Amino acid sequence: MNDVSFMELLSRYCADTHLKPKSVDSYASAVRAARRHFGKETYPSMLSREKVCAWRKVALRSRENPRGIVEVSWNNYVRHLAALYNFGIKHQLIMVEENPFNQVRVREPRKPKKTLQPYTIRYVREVMDVCRRFETAQGDPSKLYPAWFWETVIEAFYFTGIRLNQLLHIKAKDVDLKRMILVTSFEGSKTYSESVVPIADGLYPYIAKLMLAAHREGFKREDQLFNVNRFSRRHRRKEMDINQVEHFFKRLSGFCGTRVTPHRFRHTLGTDLMEDPDRNIRVTQMILDHSSMRTTMEYVHPSVDSMRKALNQRRCP
Questions:
Q1: What is the pLDDT of residue 277?
Q2: Domain boundaries in the chain?
Q3: pTM of the prediction?
Q4: What family is it from (predicted)?
């Protein structure tokens, strides 16, 4: 039996398992957290359940430790490290018989998904409209340049609810304006599945404008469609990445006075669809690309008025 280090175990696991780059980063982050706490010279075989529980006690946020990590972060660490240990035990890479990360997760507090209020969405659109008008009138970049492009990105998130990674993987060939659909590839999907997303009437003008601009720039079918670098003299990367999108939304949030993110648009769409009296859970599941109906049901948040109505309709003896 071997006895490999954390880094060697991670390397062997990633080589053996087909993972997306983002998933590899998540495993690496968990390993870094463990090595920070236990020391870089610590080997996986040196950990016990007692040591892991002691780490959990000092790592989690509490009144005594307000700068600790939240329950979700701890459970993410545990899930990834447990997978590494299971792999190491199975292939006899580490000198342990039991996984010290089994059953050390904590209960996560259930909180409503964070959504964007209607007035926030209206303000976002007003901010982008002002920036676009400024660029048109002055011929100079605004603070959110190029405004027309970022408007399209915002509306794409608003009308489709797709994940950021899905948006970044859309190619020019994936848009069919005649059929009013766009295809999201399995590379960008969390569920590893290709899906067809309808282009809503409100989104169509923005996508059509983007496709026209892409044609003028000489885009090829395999080129990344949502690529600010091809439409901006300020951006110089080959392809648009997560950092560029997050940087834009951080600046947009500063203008709006509240946090605006792609995922909050997704949560807002899911909540709106599930609050519709004529809601179709299966349709919502397909739109949001959920592999489980249980995930879709998390968007069901009855309003106080609807709960009051149900109580008032109760028969009195």
A1: 67
A2: 6-90, 118-297
A3: 0.76
A4: Belongs to the 'phage' integrase family.
Environment class of 20 (CB within 10 Å of its CB; exposed 0-12, middle 13-18, buried 19+): middle
Which helix (DSSP H) or strand (DSSP E) does residue 216 occupy? helix 204-216
Digit-coded pLDDT (tens) for 60-80? 999 999 999 999 999 999 999
H helices of 118-203, where? 118-138, 147-160, 164-168
- Helix or strand or coil: residue 201? coil
Q: How far apart are CA 54 and CA 31, in angstroms?
A: 17
Pairwise CA distance, residues 84 & 74, whole Å: 16
pLDDT in tens, 254-310: 999 999 999 999 989 988 888 776 777 778 788 887 777 777 777 766 667 777 887
In the block, residue with structure tokens 């947009």: 252
Structure tokens at 77: 């660490």
CATH homologous superfamily for the domain 118-297: Intergrase catalytic core (1.10.443.10)
Sign of CA dihedral 118, 119, 120, 121: positive
Entry field: residues in the chain: 317
Could you list the active site residues?
Answer: 163, 190, 263, 266, 290, 299
Q: Class for domain 6-90, per CATH?
A: mainly alpha
Q: How far is CA 143 from CA 127, 133, 247, 254, in A?
A: 10, 12, 12, 11
